[in-house]
Amino acid sequence: MSRSSIHQACPGAVQFAFGMNPPSVARMRVFAGPNGSGKTTLMEQLAKSINLYQIVSADKLLESLPVSKALDFADHALTVRQEDFERYIAQCSYPASLRNGLSLALVRNNRLDLGRAEINTYTVAIVAAFLRDRLLREGLSFSFETVFSHPSKVAELEQAAKRGYRVYLYFVSTDTPAINCDRVEQRVKMGGHAVPRGKIRSRYEPSMRNLLPALKCVYRAYMFDNSRREPDLVAEVEPGRKDLVLRTSQVPIWFNRYVLEQLA
Questions:
Q1: Is the confidence at residue 12, as pLDDT, over 50?
Q2: Is 86 a domain residue?
Q3: Which of 54, 71, 162, 206 is the most exposed place for a label (fewest CB within 10 A)?
Q4: Do 244 and 237 contact (CB within 8 A), yes or no?
């Protein structure tokens, strides 16, 4: 992708016409962006018109697992054995100090029994990563959300593309991390999960830096600006092409800085 591959198109001309039928080619839909950007809201809106297939949500797992202490793999159309889980935990890239929190977890009758295992944001992230890994190995279509602040997430998209997946990226951001911090505070007041302001700020830059590398390996991408009340489509990468098509005449600051200026 280069500066010469950028085109201007009529704002609002895009349609999400993927349908709701099972795909003949496996699809991965990735909703990415800094904490508090509006990924979940965008995902819920698009779910009305596109098929999200199996959904892996670390946020929902963080809500349910401390209560249920178990996860039924059949809910994600998977069949998992104890050795599958143990092998992943032993080989995954997470630090041993975090993986050890799942040392007491057992797979019985296709259910992950957490029992006395420690359940926190880190162990839940590992469980979510395991689900994505299994779905990928089985060639099943799925969707997930990610803050996208670690290079491993770009590698995950690249791996899916190499396996023949059509990778769809829906990236949503705001102009400044201050907006994200305020959004998260509002979410907490409404009963949502909290994220420390320092963590939101420290993740913002890496998330944005990972956008351009990700655009080089996806089948299709949509980039939204959510600095105001509603998410606005800024640009997209069309299927079968690596052209970046602008969908707005008012390019947001973050998109200019992290995409257009990098292509100059």
A1: no
A2: no
A3: 162
A4: yes
